[in-house]
Backbone:
């Protein structure tokens, strides 16, 4: 689909990749609804993009209901799930609350929000984008996060099979230069973080071209191909 003229929702729009996508949709999608938790940062993005802002915690049913209610006023054709949190460090160091938080924000929230918006997206023959991560392949030091992102990628795969009339795109970035890295104590020198706007541009291109998956940078696709064709080689080459 083309986002031009389609009502759109972008989650995680108060920062980073979601903000960059919202800025690219400004003037194209109408109306545009943006959501995030930080009302101040979200309002600044809404003002710059002419969007409706809904400050909400998407891990709560009430937060999701507020977003769905605003979308319901206009219908929604394009949904971009960019909200998410990271969890870096050895699995032996993460506590129960940490696992709950990452699974709630990165897996349960986008699945539940998709479920609630599905009737609207179906009637619009719309498009849903999930911002997953290269961690969906399984990355050492990010086990719980990897589980959430792999779950999200597989959820997208299932939806794509079930509803061929709806576009479903999974975005798998490597490191991206956003506050995400500092917030969760990531120390990523390789691959070098790419600008958030590069992910935004690749995402909207993938929507326009109906692509199932997009890796950013593109060469990261090699890792997925090797994992499928030669899992032993993938394990041997993966950093521990
Ligand atoms: N940066 C990277 O290196 C990288 C790499 C691969 C994948 N990703 C994925 O890309 C997506 C965007 O990340 P980013 O780099 O743009 O991070 P970011 O700058 O930290 O932005 C994350 C966004 O998600 C929102 N969010 C987090 N938890 C939420 C919750 N419970 N309810 C509602 N909104 C919530 C944040 O809202 P507030 O700030 O208002 O709380 C913010 O708008 C995430 O799914 C992340 O896993 C990032």
Residues:
């Amino acid at each position: 689909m083309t986002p031009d003229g389609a009502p759109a929702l972008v989650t995680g729009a108060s920062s980073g990749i979601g903000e960059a996508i919202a800025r690219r949709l400004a003037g194209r999608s109408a109306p545009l609804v943006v959501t995030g938790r930080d009302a101040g940062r979200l309002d600044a993005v809404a003002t710059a993009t002419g969007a409706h802002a809904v400050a909400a915690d998407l891990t709560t049913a009430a937060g999701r209901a507020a977003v769905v209610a605003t979308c319901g006023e206009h219908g929604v054709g394009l949904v971009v799930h960019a909200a998410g949190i990271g969890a870096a460090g050895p699995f032996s160091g993460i506590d129960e609350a940490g696992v709950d938080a990452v699974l709630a924000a990165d897996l349960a929230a986008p699945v539940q929000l998709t479920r609630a918006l599905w009737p609207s997206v179906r009637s619009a023959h719309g498009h849903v984008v999930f911002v997953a991560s290269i961690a969906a392949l399984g990355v050492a030091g990010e086990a719980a996060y990897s589980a959430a992102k792999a779950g999200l990628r597989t959820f997208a795969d299932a939806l794509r099979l079930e509803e061929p009339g709806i576009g479903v795109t999974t975005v798998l970035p490597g490191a991206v230069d956003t506050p995400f890295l500092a917030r969760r104590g990531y120390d990523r020198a390789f691959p070098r973080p790419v600008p958030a706007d590069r992910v935004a541009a690749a995402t909207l291109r993938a929507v326009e071209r109906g692509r199932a998956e997009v890796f950013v940078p593109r060469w990261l696709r090699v890792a997925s191909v090797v994992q499928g064709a030669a899992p032993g080689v993938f394990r041997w080459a993966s950093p521990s």
